[in-house]
Amino acid sequence: MIRLYNTMTRRKEEFVPREAGKAAIYACGPTVYNYFHLGNARMLVVFDMIRRYLTWRGFEVNYVQNFTDIDDKIIARAREEGCATEALAAKYIEAYFADAAALRVQKAAAHPKATENIAEMLDIIRVLMEKGLAYAAEGDVYYAVDRFAGYGKLSGRTPDDMTAGARVDPNPRKRGPMDFALWKKAKAGEPLWPSPWGEGRPGWHIECSAMALKYLGPSFDIHGGGGDLIFPHHENEIAQTEGYLDGKAMARYWMHNAFITVDQEKMSKSEGNFFLVRDLLKKWSGDVVRFYLLGTHYRSPLDFDEEKLVMAAKGLERLKTAWRLAEEAAGRPGETKMDLSETAAAARRAFTEAMDDDFNSAQAYAALFDLARDINTAVAAGDAHPAALREAADTLRELAAVLGLVIAPEEAETAGAEGEKFAALMALIIDIRAAARAQKDWLTADLIRDRLKEAGLVIEDTPQGARWYLAP
Ligand SMILES: [Zn+2]
């Protein structure tokens, strides 16, 4: 039984999906106006870990993460860089995928962009207007927060809390202080789309409501994001979506990861105390950064300094070394004195128990380290049976991979069914090139080689035929 902490109910609950055996997850993606920092990376890696774990536990996971590609920040940054907002977004989406891949964050099943779902947003806004939950004012459209009874239920804030602490925007077009924009009237020189209320662009919150609903439907399983999104972003998503759905829940579970802090201060763009993942990757491998991020339970604050990455690198190395020693020793004859096979089974149980308990990856690390220690002991004593050693090594590798940690070199690039498909595809391409060479069609043969090289795949002709490898 998997239990997870639901922000909505403020307790751990058994995970019971909308449809047995399936898990539909939406996580709020980045606003693509610059590179992402370590605080953003925590959210990406945490939800990637959750997704991988649910998959390993047999769920068919449908994971959707959006890109906010139109927003005030994007418009401002595009002006600074002297380019169109589309070009700016495209640049940072590409950078996002590169940095996320380095952290071994798998691509979502869908990465919808806000600008490609404007019609869906307009449809929700129209329905909210018809229901009296929204009103137009001089080309803007606002959500009438006092018309939605559940407002504040996720964050647990009362209307007084919300107006007192919040930076209330003194906008005379709004009827209530907490009302928020669904549609913003275009200002001169800004990107715009037509709407029944005049040309403009969507507010940030409506983007997620529209995309989550389009890709996952009502009452999908898990809505995730960083803890800073609980209020107002997720509260507003709920008001919009549940208003639109006549009160039907937007999501069954709401999950939020805690911040990364630097000297006890939250890491954020506005504080200026952030570290870009892109910069950290110049010095550290993505695997080390990922190992650091998952070494603490996702709901606990995580303090950052470089020393933590040094520790992470050591920890990851310990797992890699244990795996390598076990593999090497498994090739040598020995006899069973240590029951490593029971050790492997115990590690698997401890790992599953930790992860079933609200995805406690920190506790799961303990299971991995226990197994690594037992492997080292057995190898040092030289008395473990090869088959048992191999089983222990395989278990260590498998469990680490559930967390997206790669501890064995050969699985790094071509693991699993995807890797097999990829290898088959490469074999086909090599055959086609060989056929072209046999026909003396050098143009085609060279084109294949050059294009693969551009993609980071090197073809090498040897006396035994061509072979390929990933460019170092
Ligand atoms: Zn969102």
Short description:
With 472 residues, this protein is an alpha/beta fold. Helices cover 48% and strands 15% of the residues. It has 3 domains: 3-136 and 149-168 and 204-279, Rossmann fold, CATH 3.40.50.620; 305-411, Up-down Bundle (Four Helix Bundle (Hemerythrin (Met), subunit A)); 416-470, no CATH class.
Structure notes:
- This protein is α/β, with parallel strands linked by helices and 472 residues long.
- It folds into 3 domains: 3-136 and 149-168 and 204-279, Rossmann fold (3-Layer(aba) Sandwich); 305-411, Up-down Bundle (Four Helix Bundle (Hemerythrin (Met), subunit A)); 416-470, no CATH class.
- 48% of the residues lie in helices and 15% in strands.
- It is built from 15 helices and 15 strands.
- The protein has helices at residues 38-56, 72-81, 85-102, 118-130, 159-165, 204-216, 230-244, 277-283, 286-294, 306-330, 340-356, 361-381, 386-402, 416-438, 442-454; strands at 3-6, 11-14, 22-27, 60-65, 134-137, 140-143, 180-185, 200-202, 220-226, 251-257, 260-262, 265-266, 302-303, 457-462, 465-470.
- Strands 4-3-9-10 form a 4-stranded parallel sheet, with helices on both faces. Strands 5-6-7-8 form a 4-stranded antiparallel sheet. A 3-stranded mixed sheet has the order 12-11-13, with helices on one face.
- Helix 11 (340-356) runs antiparallel to helix 12 and helix 11 runs parallel beside helix 13.
- The radius of gyration is 26 Å and the shape is globular.
- It starts with a strand and ends with a strand.
- Bound molecules: zinc ion.
- Residues 28, 208, 233, 237 line the site of zinc ion.
